[in-house]
Amino acid sequence: MALRVRGDSLRHAFNRKVIFRDVSFDVTARRSLMVAGRNGAGKSTLIKILCGVLSPTAGTVTIDADDTGDSFAVQRRIGLVAPYLQVYEEFSALENLHMSMTLRGAVPEDARARQLLERVALDPNRTDPVRGFSSGMKQRLKYAMALIHRPPVLVLDEPMSNLDADGIAIVRGIMQEHLQEGIVVVATNDRSDLAAPDMEVDLNARR
Questions:
Q1: Which of 48, 45, 43, 59 is nearest to 10 (CA)?
Q2: CATH number of the domain enclosing 199
Q3: How far is CA 170 from the centre of its chain?
Q4: How far apart, in whole angstroms, are the C-alpha atoms of residue 76 and residue 149?
Q5: What is the domain count for the chain?
Q6: What's the rounded Cα separation, in Å, for the pair 48 and 38?
Q7: Which residue, 27, 118, 173, 190, has most beta carbons within 10 Å?
C-alpha cells in the first residue's frame, strides 16, 4: 500500500467558534507538508486531528488509505514531536525510549534506543533522571521517542522549540533523512523551519 496522508474538507469548531474550515491536503511518500498560521490559527488543533487525538467537527483524515478509525494503527504510523508532549521525568533517557516502545506493544530494542540517543546527541549511558535535563535536551529526547517505532509519518509541531544551533542542525538532518522514504508534516509560524515544503496549508485563510 502506497504511503499517503490525506485530509478532506476538515472543519473544526469549539464552543460554536470556527477554528478553521475547508482544509484539505494530500501528501505522499518523500513529500512534506507545512501547516502555517499565526498563533491561535489552529495549527496544533489540526495536528492533533491528523494524529487521531481529536476528532474534526467535519471532514476526514486518511492515513495509508486506512479510514477504519483504528487509533492504535494511527499511533503506529505516526511519530509526533510537540511542545505539549511530556517526557517521563523520573526515568533516564534510555528508559524513556524503552517505555515508548513498550507502550506501543513492542519489545524494547536496546541497540536501537542507544543509536537514536546518539543521533540526537544524548549520552545513552547517562542514567540520571530526565528531570535534570535542559529544555533543549528534552526536546531532542522527544525526537528519539518519536522515531523509536520507525513511523512512516513524522509530525512536528513547532519543531525547533527550545533548540540551540546544534539542536536545530540535528533536527534538520532528521527531517531530510525521513523524507528519503516517509512523509514529514511541520506546523509552524516560522517558515524557515521548513524552507521548501511540497505542500502548504495556510490556516490564516481558513477561518
A1: 59
A2: 3.40.50.300
A3: 15
A4: 7
A5: 1
A6: 17
A7: 27
pLDDT digits (tens, 9 = 90+) for 163-196: 999 999 999 999 999 999 999 999 999 999 998 9
Integer Cα distance of 201 and 43 in angstroms: 10
Calculate mean pLDDT across residues 146-175: 97
Residue 198 · residue 30 · CB < 8 Å: no
Q: What cell numbers appear for 178 in the block? A: 525521513
**CB 150 within 8 Å of CB 75:** no
**Angle between the N-to-C axes of helices 93-103 and 110-119, in degrees from 0 to 180, rounded to the nearest 10:** 120
CB hemisphere CA count around 181 (13 angstroms): 3
CB 94 within 8 A of CB 114: yes
The domain of 191 spans 4-205
The 10s digit of each residue's pLDDT in 16-71 is 899 999 999 999 999 999 999 999 999 999 999 999 999 999 999 999 845 445 55
The predicted model scores a pTM of: 0.93
Residues contacting residue 14 through CB under 8 Å, at least 6 positions apart: none
**Phi, psi for 14 (deg, rounded to 5):** -135, 125
- Name the range with the highest mean pLDDT among 66-75, 102-111, 146-155: 146-155
HSE-up of residue 63 (Cα within 13 Å, Cβ side): 24
